[in-house]
Design brief:
This protein has 127 residues and is an alpha+beta fold. The chain is built from two helices and nine strands, in the order βαβββββαβββ.
Length: 127
């Protein structure tokens, strides 16, 4: 069994799409728009076959995203080396994204950094 895709609701669909394409190397489909409901989405594909669906619905609610809560905590992207973790983290910081930890080696041996991007959602960058 494998995870087919993960989905993320966002307010600004085009900004989210641009972020994942620019920084995480995603390839985007042409998108979907349901004219009746206003729902829109893109499927973003990554090199190893993983997919992320980003979605928007004009009727959705937007709650604060506290870190110490139940539910999905973050999405992690493996970039292949410590040097690439460092470089991408530095680029994101320069571009105005908040780095909340790292780059560092965690107690369980991961080399990672975590940033806040895409409307308050946490993204982990790891080897």
């Amino acid at each position: 069994m494998k995870i087919e895709h993960i989905a993320l609701y966002v307010k600004d669909l085009e900004t989210a799409r641009s972020f994942f394409v620019k920084y995480m190397g995603a390839k985007s489909n042409e998108g979907y728009h349901n004219l009746k409901t206003g729902f829109r989405s893109y499927f973003l594909s990554f090199g190893d076959g993983a997919r992320l669906e980003i979605m928007n619905n004009p009727e959705m609610l937007d709650f604060s995203k506290e870190f110490a809560r139940t539910g999905y905590a973050h999405i992690a992207f493996s970039v292949g080396s410590k040097e690439k973790v460092d470089a991408l983290t530095a680029e994101l910081k320069t571009d105005g994204y908040e780095v909340v930890s790292g780059p560092r080696t965690t107690g369980d041996g991961y080399y990672e950094s975590c940033i806040i991007a895409i409307e308050g959602n946490q993204i982990e960058i790891t080897v």
